[in-house]
Write a structure and sequence with these properties.
The chain contains 14 helices and 2 strands; from the N terminus they run H-E-E-H-H-H-H-H-H-H-H-H-H-H-H-H. By secondary structure, the chain is an all-alpha fold. The protein folds into 3 domains: about 80 residues, Serine Threonine Protein Phosphatase 5, Tetratricopeptide repeat, CATH 1.25.40; about 100 residues, Serine Threonine Protein Phosphatase 5, Tetratricopeptide repeat, CATH 1.25.40; about 50 residues, no CATH class.
Length: about 250
């Protein structure tokens, strides 16, 4: 909340006509104002305040139509609200305006994967992964691995995810994806190892418990399976996963 208040104050300052050192009046710096509105829009989006986010991002684009981050953030917002008509246009515009930003390419790849445009998605993931200046290549590696997993390309998915874990051994997304890969490819001991590592670094969720329950069932450890089902019913009694888990012992 403090960050948002501070940003709002800065925005108000930028909106006021400033004076130069010679005492001459000049207009507001619209590029800076645009970036501040992007920051505000992003903050609202993280809080699921989509209407406020939309207002700020539209203002950012009015202030600077060449703001690549404004275009890519607007694309994220449109995906959240399910308005897909202009998403690709915003991503392509963002990439043309800032071709060096691999975060945008990674986000575009994720969107394309969600739309089942897997080959196109992989193209953008690869660009981000191979960018020597990209600060978070493990993020693109995980997304590439998860996308390959959706298509049943287990070897490809595993290669991406193992590389991500070498970069960040405690990545929860990578650990969970490896556990899921093990379950899908019937490598149950591997899946158990990864979901246990996941739970060492994160509190169990209904989703992660359900994965582990399936693994223990596949390994024939009914004692451990029942123990996990009890934990599920205690922590997440109203979840869909709890209903699925109870179906295993009825």
């Amino acid at each position: 909340m403090k960050k948002i208040i501070i940003i709002s104050i800065i925005l108000g300052v930028l909106g006021v006509t400033a004076c130069s050192s010679q005492g001459k009046k000049s207009g507001p710096d619209l590029k800076k104002a645009s970036m501040i509105n992007v920051q505000l829009g992003s903050a609202y989006l993280r809080q699921d305040k989509v209407a406020l986010a939309k207002t700020k991002l539209e203002k950012a684009l009015q202030q600077d139509a060449d703001n690549a981050l404004a275009h890519s953030t607007m694309a994220l917002l449109l995906e959240v609200v399910g308005q897909h008509e202009n998403i690709i246009d915003h991503y392509e515009e963002a990439i043309s305006l800032d071709p060096a930003d691999s975060d945008i390419k990674n986000n575009f790849g994720t969107y394309l994967c969600n739309q089942k445009r897997y080959e196109e998605a992989q193209k953008y993931f690869n660009i981000a992964i191979n960018d020597p200046y990209y600060k978070t290549p493990s993020v693109a590696l995980i997304n590439a691995g998860q996308c390959a997993l959706k298509t049943g390309k287990y070897k490809k998915a595993e290669a991406f995810l193992r590389k991500a874990l070498r970069t960040n051994p405690k990545s929860l997304s990578a650990l969970y994806a490896m556990a899921s890969l093990g379950l899908r490819s019937q490598r149950y001991l591997m899946s158990r190892a990864y979901i246990q590592r996941y739970h060492l670094n994160s509190k169990p969720s209904a989703k992660s418990l359900w994965l582990q329950i399936q693994v223990e069932k596949s390994l024939g450890d009914r004692k451990e399976m029942r123990k996990l089902i009890e934990q599920m019913n205690k922590k997440f009694p109203d979840s869909d996963e709890a209903g699925l888990a109870m179906g295993l012992i009825r």
